[in-house]
Fold this sequence. Notes:
Radius of gyration: 23 Å
Number of helices: 13
Helix content: 55-70%
Number of strands: 0
Largest sheet: none
Amino acid sequence: MKKQKVPIWKNELRAVFLCTALVLTPAAAAASQDSDALSLSERLAALESELSVLEEKTGIQIGELTDDNGAAAGAAAPVSDAGETDPQQFLEAAVDSFNQRRQKAAEYTSEELAGMNEADRVAYYYACVEAEDNFYNRYQNALFSDKNLQYYCHVYRTAMEQQKSACQQYQQDGDGEKFNENWYVGYYNRVVAITGLYDNYGAAFDGDTVETLRADIGLETTLKEELEANRSVDTDTVYSVQTMLNALGYSCGGADGLCGPATVRSVRHFQAMNKMTITGVIDRNLVSKLTEQAKR
């Protein structure tokens, strides 16, 4: 049987579970007496209204209701004893999110996708990126002492924003060419994050899929060009850059004055996180910015 096509708009039904120990406001208590007479949507609306009242009174943002999987939407990321987001749990969550999206993407074969009209195909892409919403919300305020990991987290979430924005823009103007351009920007950034987490942190993504993604965007070719450009930089400057990168949390391994892949990646990450042009190349602008931050 042919699988049902993904609708343009995905409707989510959130299940709400209230603990019996919860102290209700008077309005909520009164409403609960007649709850059997209300529809599910009416009960959800009433509960959301009460949550808003509690937030105003306590000053505590209770957040969204649970989703249909029972997982708290936008739940806070786990925090380690050092006060930062737990790196290992982040890596595991990234892999789980990646796999959820792959599962969603597998609902259609390439032949079925080729037979879709453009609007339905974009809706399918939208549903795929939405499959990672819980991960996106959970790590929106992630904080790592390892700034390379911070970079990959930022890029992963930015990629989701770019792809979702591409779909939303298409729904407004129906411009398929613009959609393809914008979607691919997000695709490229997502692959950068996935391969970076896989290569440098041992994230357990499917290896064959990672290599396919890497080849698809020509990631290694770009890195080789940057390594070649840095060969003319003197060893003292490279050593100084490596020392400052390590001190600022952009770990590039031991400082030895030799610019290898780890140094190039850390340079790129530093440039990205400081809104510089991302070249991966050690130049005067980079040294100046690093020196400025190292003195703080």
